[in-house]
Design a protein that fits this description.
The protein is about 35% helix and about 15% strand. The protein is an alpha/beta fold and about 270 residues long. Bound molecules: zinc ion (ZN).
Amino acid sequence: MTSAGVDTMSTSSINPMAMSLRTAYQPMPVMPSIFSGKLAGRTVTVSESGPLGLQPGEIILTFDDGPRAGITESILDTLDQYGVKATFLMLGSAAERYPSLVREVAARGHTIGTHTYNHVDLSNLSNQEAVAEIYAGQQAVAAALAPDDLAPSRFFRFPYLAQNGVIRTSAVESRFIVLDVDIDSKDYFAETPQQVLDRTLARLDEQGAGVVLFHDIHLRTAAVLPEFLKTLRERGYQVVALRSSGGGVFDGPVITADASSVDPEV
Ligand SMILES: [Zn+2]
């Protein structure tokens, strides 16, 4: 197995199929001159849940369930290589385990949202329990970012995309911006990176734009990302950076259906 060969300055040097995972985890130099920035699109700032107003060819990269040591770093390096920004929907439990990785994601310019504390199916909980779980996730990620005087964005994604109208309404009323999914890579299937790549590109080409779901907890996701981004660029897609406006979630009250507040210390 050859090294990553970044000195060759060619995109073929980052073929994930030819890279050992150990090589993939090594920090790589930023190479802004190679990638002209064509792949990096505009920044979309949203203030509420709902359509993101993407144009044809515009995609948003999202990574759920992390951070995970040994994988998130590789994904960050690949995103830097291609000069694009993503949104990471983090679990509170993972943020508590890897707080420095949470800060690293933020330091490298990506947007951080949350995904509950413990990845539970919220549709199986009472509304108040569900809001508490969402809030606990946000609280844990906020705690990880606090040393850098940063806070998570207002983006939230439902685990398993499982929700109901009452819980979604409560999340929205609690100032979260619910982030839905247009293209599911299904990178959690026990398949080869090539299978994940082919399926994701096919669905993206069908839809022409949208929010793409990956997970920064799987080796195959780290392996597939360079080829995915390379192909996006070849096909003329643009990766849009996503930001939330209107301050943080904790600037407002947490509202449940019975109008009781959730104690932030819980
Ligand atoms: Zn998830």
